[in-house]
# Entry
Amino acid sequence: EYLYSLSINPAPGQELTREQYVDYAARIEKKLGLEGQPRAMVFHIKEGRAHCHVVWSRIDWQAGKAIHLAFDHEKLMMVSRE
# Structure
């Protein structure tokens, strides 16, 4: 899997600014060891609910292999709790 994707879905009734979405994605990126990797962010509203999708490339072009992601769910939970 050469891509890592994440959907940022605030709780019903909670809204985030674009800056908050970007900050959250940056904190996740750092925690997962994906800093400096190409990423795409898509913001949209579906059924009246704003949310964001983030996709990172896991390929380390210098090493020629995918960046290992261990315990990603636990790391996502840590950032969410922060």
